[in-house]
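Field log, afternoon session.

UNIT: design team B
ACTIVITY: writing a sequence onto a fixed backbone
BACKBONE:
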């Protein structure tokens, strides 16, 4: 017999993140369920989540909830931190967002929930994974771009195959 599906109340994005901000302000922590595939393979859509703490001094490798100010939010990893802003990308993304203002960070992950198990972000293996992902972000992006250019250069054009 299959498990009953728990009832879920769907809220508009602004209302949901308003509640997240409120909970962060009142208790110092808030749980956010992951939606989307940008943080795979570490975090899976609707299965996993993060426990956020209040915004603090960002470090390379931190996972942050970022308010894009257009009604959309992103849960991505910090790749670089500068004096006036930071760079972030999803672990499963090829696009890097640069020069983002610190003031739009809603919260920083203090723990992850994977397959129902809470893992503090200070966990040794999680930190090693984070270091590997951040170190490989730019090389994998450039390799993908180069591979795409080579593929387009060498793929056969329709109707221009070898002569029979």
């Amino acid at each position: 017999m299959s498990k009953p599906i728990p009832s879920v109340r769907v809220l508009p994005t602004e209302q949901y993140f308003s509640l997240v901000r409120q909970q962060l302000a009142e208790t110092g922590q808030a749980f956010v369920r992951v939606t989307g595939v940008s943080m795979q393979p570490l975090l899976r859509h609707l299965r996993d989540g993060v426990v956020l703490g209040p915004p603090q001094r960002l470090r390379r490798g931190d996972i942050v909830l970022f308010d894009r100010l257009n009604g959309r939010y992103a849960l991505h990893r910090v790749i670089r931190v500068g004096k006036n802003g930071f760079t972030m990308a999803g672990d499963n993304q090829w696009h890097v967002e640069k020069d983002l203002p610190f003031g739009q960070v809603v919260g920083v992950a203090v723990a992850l929930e994977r397959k129902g198990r809470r893992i503090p972000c200070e966990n040794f293996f999680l930190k090693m994974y984070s270091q590997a992902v951040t170190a490989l972000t730019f090389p994998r992006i450039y390799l993908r771009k180069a591979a795409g250019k080579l593929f387009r250069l060498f793929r056969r054009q329709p109707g221009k195959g070898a002569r029979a």
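LOG NOTE: The helical segments are 13-27, 124-154.
NEXT ACTIVITY: expression trials, pending approval
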